[in-house]
Specification:
Order of helices and strands: HHHHEEEHEHEHEHHHHHHHEHEH
Keywords: Hydrolase, Membrane, Transmembrane, Transmembrane helix
GO molecular function, one term: carboxylic ester hydrolase activity
CATH architecture of the largest domain: 3-Layer(aba) Sandwich
Bound molecules: 2-acetamido-2-deoxy-beta-D-glucopyranose
Number of domains: 2
CATH class of the largest domain: Alpha Beta
Mean pLDDT: 91
CATH superfamily of the largest domain: Alpha/Beta hydrolase fold, catalytic domain
Pfam families: Abhydrolase_3
CATH topology of the largest domain: Rossmann fold
Largest sheet: 8 strands, mixed
Distance between the termini: 58 Å
Family: Belongs to the 'GDXG' lipolytic enzyme family.
Strand content: 15-25%
Protein name: Arylacetamide deacetylase-like 4
Number of helices: 16
Low-confidence stretches: none
Structural class: alpha/beta
Helix content: 40-55%
Strand order of the largest sheet: 1-2-4-3-5-6-7-8
Length: about 400
């Protein structure tokens, strides 16, 4: 199709009653049915956020069918729209650690001693995320706690297959640990922070550093609504928050499949754990199952997944055989015991809330110091809205204050 043909198709499509009805129903349904926590102080804003996140993916799909651009490219484009504006207090520059692009945020005011440093590993399922989208988060952290923040622009899937993401982040981390003095940073005060899928990267990097016994060590890890495992996809939080807000269960499964194989089909069987052999379920029951989730977190509903035939093909696809790669929660005790001081933020209204709860338990059982903040009206993705007036949620501001408090207390 040439460009005129595509535009003509777009025109036809946009002005057909079918599309109009489809989109109106979608918007209405999403707005009305958006699961809004009763505790939230911003119910309308939350509904709007939910509707927009559903809508952007749907519109992307339509554009893909019309041959205009693919869905992932469209969503990436939208996520990059927020313009960051001026920042008088920080020196911001782009550079590379080895071959990995990074953006460094340094406070302009001189400091008598070396500062703390923080590497920020973004979320987005390894598919989305760019310095544009996380600019405000990084600035807020650097400004708020007088830190040097390094944002890592790791390669994205599906263009770059897993584990390219982990290897880029590991390269950037080891480089920073070894060259921190060049950036005015104390090598013994380096924090690794990650949100959502970035949480799995943080935990996996710490494992690799522990295994290779390099020095200096990471001082602390900060996990913000982390994704930490692909073995049990039917935990209480998956069931309770299957409709979002924002991230829905189906969307997450689809994106997960796009990440591991470039295509997002076959989500139903995955949601019911068809990819997990019985032997593994038994082996890891003590660490990773609904039994380890405190009862109070089951009060919004939970029923054990109905048995479903095991799929060898799905198992191979999800690389469960290499269990700890995408599921750092399954690392052995010998590794977990050596993990640094940890801050975990979980949100009640988050599909993957229970990953954070289970990891917290694993760390505590291994005597690792854990600071935990459970945000009762929080939802997946809420960190991104910091300093974006008028989209900022009150829970976003409070969460950042708590994170900054943890950093300052180190
Ligand atoms: C830092 O560099 C030294 C010497 O080049 C090396 O032995 C060490 O493993 C490096 N540390 C890290 C964390 O990469
Ligand atoms: C954790 O600390 C307690 C109390 O000091 C001790 O009894 C226990 O064995 C420790 N557990 C591990 C895994 O080190």
């Amino acid at each position: 199709m040439n460009i005129f043909h595509r535009l003509f198709m777009l025109y036809l499509y946009l002005f057909t009653p079918v599309l109009f009805v489809e989109l109106s129903l979608l918007l209405y349904y999403a707005f009305k049915k958006a699961p809004v926590p009763s505790e939230t102080k911003d119910p309308k804003k939350l509904r709007l956020y939910h509707v927009l996140s559903v809508f952007i993916f749907r519109l992307g799909k339509i554009f893909e069918k019309l041959g205009i651009c693919n869905q992932i490219a469209f969503v990436r484009f939208v996520l990059n729209l927020a313009l960051p504006g001026k920042e008088p207090n920080l020196l911001i520059r782009d550079t590379k650690f080895e071959q990995v692009p990074v953006r460094i945020y340094q406070p302009k005011t001189p400091s008598a001693q070396p500062r703390k440093g923080l590497l920020y590993l973004h979320g987005g399922c390894g598919i989305f995320g760019s310095n544009r989208g996380y600019e405000r988060v990084c600035r807020h952290l650097a400004r708020g706690s007088d830190l040097v923040v390094v944002y890592v622009e790791y390669r994205l899937a599906p263009e770059h297959e897993h584990p390219a993401q982990l290897s880029d982040c590991l390269t950037a981390t080891t480089y920073f640990l070894n060259h921190s003095k060049d950036y005015g940073v104390d090598p013994n005060c380096i924090i690794l922070a990650g949100e959502s899928s970035g949480g799995a990267l943080v935990a996996a990097i710490n494992r690799e550093l522990i295994k290779s016994s390099t020095t200096p060590k990471v001082q602390a890890q900060i996990l913000i609504y982390p994704f930490l495992q692909i073995m049990d996809l039917s935990l209480p939080s998956h069931q309770q928050n299957h409709l979002g807000p924002g991230l829905t269960r189906k969307r997450a499964m689809k994106l997960g499949l796009v990440f591991i194989k470039g295509k997002g089909d076959d989500v139903e069987r995955l949601m019911n754990n068809a990819h997990v052999p019985e032997s593994m379920k038994t082996k890891y029951k003590k660490w990773l199952s609904a039994d380890c989730i405190p009862e109070e977190f089951k009060s919004r509903g939970y029923k054990p997944p109905s048995p479903i035939p095991f799929s060898k093909e799905l198992c191979e696809l999800t690389r469960l055989n290499d269990e700890t790669m995408l599921s750092p929660i399954l690392d052995e005790d010998a590794i977990v015991q050596q993990l640094p001081k940890t801050y975990i933020l979980t949100c009640e209204y988050d599909l993957i809330r229970d990953d954070g709860l289970l990891y917290k338990k694993r760390l505590e059982d291994n005597n690792v110091s854990v600071t935990w903040n459970h945000v009762k009206d929080g939802f997946h993705g809420f960190i991104m809205f910091i300093d974006i007036w008028p989209l900022e949620f009150s829970c976003t501001k409070n969460a950042f204050e708590d994170i900054l408090k943890f950093i300052k207390g180190l």
